[in-house]
Amino acid sequence: MTKTAYAQAGVDIDLGNRVKATLPALLASTHRPEVLGKVGGFGGLFALDIRRYRQPVLVSSVDGVGTKLKVAFALDRHDTIGQDLVNHCVNDIAVLGPSHSSSSIIWAPAGWSRGYSRRL
Q1: Which of 60, 61, 98, 118 is positioned for an S-S bond with 92, CB 3.0–4.6 A?
Q2: Is the pLDDT of residue 72 over 70?
Q3: CA atoms 76, 79, 82, 83: torsion sign
Q4: Is-contact 113 14, C-beta < 8 A?
Q5: Domain spans, the chain
Q6: Distance, CA of 98 to CA of 94 (rounded, Å)
Q7: What does DSSP say about strands 45-46 and 35-36: parallel, antiparallel, or unpaired?
Q8: Where does residue 19 rank: exposed (0-12), middle (13-18), buried (19+ CB within 10 A)?
Q9: How far is CA 52 from each of CA 55, 56, 105, rounded to the nearest angstrom?
């Protein structure tokens, strides 16, 4: 798909790249040595130290943003969506009792400005 085709579909590749460039600094405090690769790829890599655990089990959770975004746009308040998503997933995982290893957030904004990205 060409850049023009993406633009016609409402996707601003340049804006996406600018927003993505801000993420490493925002996420730096959460980095662990086991995390491999860089922010913004199509997948995340985590080098699990199996010597540290007798029977390691990785736990993950995912949550949708539909209702959260409807409320955020209705209130013009986007500064709590990220917290809500992360906390929802963390809570779902925490009740299972694992130690934290990594988090994966899928962020697919469409039709919004860079201002929304910063507030999120």
Answers
A1: 61
A2: yes
A3: negative
A4: no
A5: 31-109
A6: 7
A7: antiparallel
A8: buried
A9: 9, 9, 26
